[in-house]
Amino acid sequence: MQEAETKGPGKDTMGKALEGVRILDFTHVQSGPTCTQLLAWFGADVIKVERPGVGDATRSQLRDLPDVDSLYFTMLNHNKRSVTIDTKNPKGKEVLERLVKSCDVLVENFAPGALDRMGFSWERVQELNPRMIYASVKGFGPGPYEDCKVYENVAQCTGGSASTTGFDDGPPLVTGAQIGDSGTGLHLALGIVTALFQRERTGRGQRVLAAMQDGVLNLCRVKLRDQQRLQHGPLKEYPQYPHGKFGDAVPRAGNASGGGQPGWIVKCKGWETDPNAYIYIITQAAVWPQICKVIGKEEWIDDPDYATPEARLPRLMHIFATIEEWTKTKDKFEVMNILNPLNIPCGPILSMKELAEEPSLRKTGTIVEVDHPTRGKYLTVGNPIKMSDSPTEVKRSPLLGEHTDEILTGLLGYSEAEVSALRECGAV
Ligand code: CAO
């Protein structure tokens, strides 16, 4: 691993899990930046390379305040350093070569072929630094679509998520969870730390590829399970059973549970005006008597039409409609407070506003307030992975090119005069 010999996150994160690992972060938009932000939170020194004067496109996308880095950018690029290099300028290429030689991992999510066109193919990077781990997010793996550009919702649609999300009588739906971008970034991060672990034994770097279609499909694993179950009869836990029709592909299951215990979203008090006055309830077999008692249907406990999970399957929609008559008399938190002591799994539908204001999430660092020199204070999602020996401090995202000088002189060994010359020719 490289020595962290310069100022910045590398120096003051000593004691973290990835301390001493240096990342050449060639990522933009969401998928790649999610990955490198996680690595930075684990202590890696992440150097984000951006185009001079422009930077990551998200710096100026979906701006809420004029002329300051957007929340889109700031919330995906914490704890990184920013260096601006024009990688199409010959002198800029030289700077990048030095950077390749000084880093452990190169992470990129350019359109297919962009890095090759820049002159930094896997082969070339290996020549420059055989220990380099070269990690990429692409929309698709090798195959008919490998040259396509891909964004979040394209991945959700091509990875099986949209086809299996929504209600039977509606169109396919994309989800709010960014499973294509952030999901693939997570997959890539695991690939990178695994490659670093293997390098300890082999001394060699390797190529790591996380395709967004593959990442989404991995997260839709249970739907491929259901596709195969469908060949042997209807999917009895789906709302289509017993009255609806099943075709030859897994249908959209509405809010049915993806597991073996039936679940559904039911209305709570206030649902007429509050779009989030709902709760998810799971009718776990082990607590069936408790469910019957709490909703006032004690007769269902021994009724052969309701007493066993198998008997309940054709009646699930009626069961949830009956549960809903009860939940509509209470607000979602009252329902939760009543059901949890009875071991009945349930989850209120929490809005983003409620999550942002939730004190326990602030306490654990899952929601963090960060101060930024040009935008002021804002909220972000902190590191969702907590480690006892590698605590996370969330530090603001870098301004465009904020660390160019310190990286060129401190890490790459350029003199101040050389840096001025690089600036003059537009290389940095
Ligand atoms: N200096 C000079 N040129 C630079 C540069 C730098 N520092 N950084 C980037 N560039 C150039 C690239 O070399 C590329 O040039 P060429 O097309 O001439 O080779 C150009 O900028 C644009 O890169 P791009 O094609 O990756 O960007 P785009 O905005 O057209 O496409 C995206 C964006 C996300 C669709 C595409 O990058 C992609 O498909 N990435 C892989 C999948 C992915 O990660 N998608 C998720 C994105 S988040 O929703």
Quaternary status of these chains?
Answer: single chain
Q: Spatial order of the strands in the main sheet?
A: 3-2-1-4-5-6
Order of helices and strands: HEHEHEHEHHEHHEHHEEHHHHEHHEEHH
Quantity of strands, as a count: 11
> Distance between the terminal alpha carbons, to the nearest Å?
26 Å
Instruction: Outline the biggest β-sheet.
Output: 6 strands, parallel
Question: What overall form do the CA principal axes indicate?
Answer: elongated
Low-confidence stretches: 1-11
Helix content: 25-40%
Helix count, DSSP H or I runs of 4 or more residues: 18
Walk me through the structure.
With 428 residues, the chain is α/β, with parallel strands linked by helices. The chain contains 18 helices and eleven strands. The strands form three sheets. It has a six-stranded parallel sheet, with helices on both faces. The chain has a three-stranded antiparallel sheet with strand order 7-8-9, with helices on one face. A two-stranded antiparallel ribbon has the order 10-11. Helix 2 (31-41) packs across helix 8 (181-202) and helix 8 packs across helix 9. The longest helix has 22 residues, at 181-202. It is elongated, with a radius of gyration of 26 Å. It starts with 8 loop residues before the first helix and ends with a helix. Mean pLDDT is 95; it is low at 1-11. The site of oxidized coenzyme A has 25 residues, from helix 2, strand 2, helix 5 and strand 5.
